[in-house]
Amino acid sequence: MNQDLLDATARVLGEPAAERAGTRRPQDDLVFDSVTMIELKCALEERVPELAAASLADLFDGVFTLGDLRERLAVLRGQPVT
């Protein structure tokens, strides 16, 4: 899932350096607004179709970094958080 998140983030942001963004705050440092969050959710759903059932709140509420989002995605998929 980590690579899926990095790839989707890089695609949405148009930045190949997204792999260095693990501790950035999506809404602040990466300038994620509501449209960007929807774009990221859609990009993730293309790679992980079962995320379609998750709402934006399920994905982003209480998430402050891409590391947090990686953990949230693992929980939503029923995987252990590492």
Features:
82 residues; mainly alpha; 4 helices; 0% strand; globular
Question: Layout of SSEs?
Answer:
Blueprint: H1 2-13, H2 34-47, H3 56-60, H4 66-76
Helix pairs in contact: 1-2
- What structural category arises from helix and sheet content? mainly alpha
Element string (H = helix, E = strand): HHHH
Between the first and last Cα atoms, what is the distance in angstroms?
11 Å
The general outline is globular
β-sheet strand percentage: under 5%
Average pLDDT, to the nearest integer?
Answer: 80
Rounded radius of gyration (Å):
11 Å
The count of strands amounts to 0
The biggest beta sheet reads:
none
Low-confidence stretches: none
Helix content: 40-55%
Tally of alpha and pi helices:
4
